[in-house]
Design brief:
The protein is 11% helix and 52% strand. With 98 residues, it is mainly β. It has one domain: Sandwich (Jelly Rolls), CATH 2.60.120.10. Strands 1, 2, 3, 4, 5, 6 and 7 form a seven-stranded antiparallel sheet that branches. The longest helix is centred in the first third of the chain and has 11 residues, at 8-18. It is globular. InterPro entries: RmlC-like_jellyroll, RmlC_Cupin_sf.
Length: 98
């Protein structure tokens, strides 16, 4: 997991997420098959997938249902919503808004 500094390749995507009202916006890179156990945030988050993929599960709602998001997809997670995520085999580069 790495936070990338702003560069021209990600500036447009970061501006897109910022236009949704997020003040803290950055590009994040997960290594292949990175896994984050179920957790939640006290604030809403937005994840715009630039490369690779991310799979998410909402264990409090449908513990056995996983949804995969690929390049160009955006995932919005409400504040307080428990979620578990996995990066794809190719990893996942995304713009995150908080």
């Amino acid at each position: 997991m790495t936070i990338l500094e702003n560069d021209s390749a990600h500036t447009e995507a970061e501006q897109q997420v910022r236009s949704l009202g997020y003040s803290h916006v950055y590009t994040w890179v997960d290594k292949p098959n990175a896994h984050y156990e179920a957790h939640s945030h006290t604030f809403p988050t937005s994840h715009l997938i630039l490369e690779g993929s991310m799979t998410v599960c909402y264990p409090d709602d449908q513990p056995n249902h996983k949804e995969k998001f690929g390049k160009g997809a955006r995932l919005d997670v409400p504040a307080g919503k428990a979620h578990e995520t996995w990066a794809g085999e190719e990893g996942c580069t995304m713009v995150v808004g908080e």
